[in-house]
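User: Hello, can you help with two protein structures?

Assistant: Certainly.
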Amino acid sequence: MGKQVVGPFKQIVTAAGLPVKGAIKDESLEVIKNGGLLIDDGFIQEVGSFDQLRKSGNEVLELEGTHICLPGFIDSHTHICFGGSRAKDYAARNNGKTYLEIAKEGGGIWDTVTKTREASKEELVEGIIKRANRHLEEGVTTIEVKSGYGLSVEEELKMLRAIKEADVKSDVDLIPTCLAAHILPKDFDGDHKAYLDHISTDLFPILKQEKLTNRIDAFIEEEAFSSSITSNYFLRAKEMGFAITVHADQFSTGGSEVAVNVGAISADHLEASGDKEIELLAKSDTIATALPGASMGLGVAFTPGRKILDAGGALAIASDWNPGSAPMGDLLMQACVLGSYEKLSNAEVLSGITFRAAAALGLNDCGRIASGMKADLTIFETNHYNEIFYHQGKMKPKMVFKSGKRIF
């Protein structure tokens, strides 16, 4: 792919120069008016005046209409590799049944585990690509995808191999994460510690050998895994060179402290986090990731995003797209709703689904529109970037570019 100039854009909102941590006012956003991009081999080479760039002698893709260009969105926490549906759980939950009651009746995470185990790898690949393509049409160009519905060495490998294959077949970048420590499987003959020992001993080496992921996650919660045994599990993972991310503080606290202590790259959920947890996160390099889709799906409080930012923390925003607690999967809409409830500036919402989400995945080549970054672009047909957030996700992209390639 040769050099190409793309534009004009009424506004290019670059997100360049903004900090990974702390509050951001909208006035801090760099907005280039009547701008253009020079793209070379999938990367942005120059950002500037469209009229000047078009004189460079390179091929020009001139857009008709009034367009706003944002960085491609990044969803740093999803579970889009799964089998089956949990619509029955959703109805039961809204009808007044508790999580434990639903689980006893055959619902809950174990229902998805059963359906995912029944699915072939090919069926999982098809499902991932279908969901990833819908995300791509809504402006999401990079997606983290977790395992965690296999809960055995064989089935976790099936999931992660499916994610790897889907990444090759999809236009989106899929970032795999091993969540074998989701819950204790019902069919494992041993306790929580024995299960984590089994996973770290028998699964981790294969993950390295097949290069299936460099990220390990665990769900720290009363009905999942305790802080103490999970800390040791994470330390073993770090010794093997894995990055750590944590399902933390969803219903009770403790997970965020583990995340900070083990140097996790991100701590996700945090709906139950209080002042102590917020201070710990703000003083660390761990990215706090809000998952508004889970709050909406479960009907619980949102992550205290405003407090996290005001304390100096880093806030990413992800969809948590999964078949149980967060089936919607609309990242922009969820981020805008979180912004309304937590009083986040448009700059903070945009940062949460672009470069701060990239930081939560350890990526440094996407999430901003600047020289040297991937040409991942989400383009809206409107006259001001404020309109995009104002419509709370109902305004969909007119065009999406992935690595310089116009996908639609």
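That covers the first. Now for the second protein you mentioned:
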Amino acid sequence: MKNFTNQSLLLILILFSGYGYIASCTQDAISPLPAAASNAPVITRGTDILLPKSMTVGDTSAWKLDKAHCNVMWSTNYVGAAGLLTGRFNQFGMHDVTDDKMLNYVTAGQPLKDTSWAFYENEPSKTYFNGYVQINQSNTGEPGRDAGCNITTLGTTAIVAGTQNLTVTNLAKIKTTDVKFDPTSNDYIVTLNLTWKGTLAAPLTKSVVGRLKYIRRNQVQFGTSAAYSVFGFQLKFQLNARDFGIASTSISDKVDIECNMNFNNK
């Protein structure tokens, strides 16, 4: 009787232990998996409001285009080859060049103030900007091409020393029509009117869509000079050269434009 009791007790213990093990495994199997990492972009926007105002020197609330540290670049595929043709425009600005201002200006500096823009970081509907380039100032690093075939290919006239040519034959202009948040990043989606005559009989305006990146305001100081603040814009868009009558077989239809604009409040 004693042996039966001990054996029965041992059997019961084994059965309960097995049940506990099975229950433990079952519990582990049905435990919820950890939440998957989110792939949603992290978007952070501030409330910066940046305006040119009167561009008065010494007014730290007035932002001035630092043209010496800016550039407007272009690139396109060289037709029939794998490489790119690239260049930049030596003369450009941020002004709404209306018809009455499309003139030759005898000056070595900016012919018009770079005041036709405003940026509201958190209110893109208030943001706008205008810009222009002088077509005959395209600089590929090959003087023979820049002052030769490019002049006729692009439908413009040769550079006149000491003159800034903002006439209709030498001007390409952009003007924003819509600026809105990019839902996938901190950037902005910008719709622009691009106006250029090219080799056409009259200027043509085409709507293009680009991306605007805001490089946030930051304070800098060099040596013992007074500290000041800087910020930047990077705008990228694409145009179709054939729309404007450019028939060159050296370039593809699509031309990429990149504008890097830096500002300071000195």
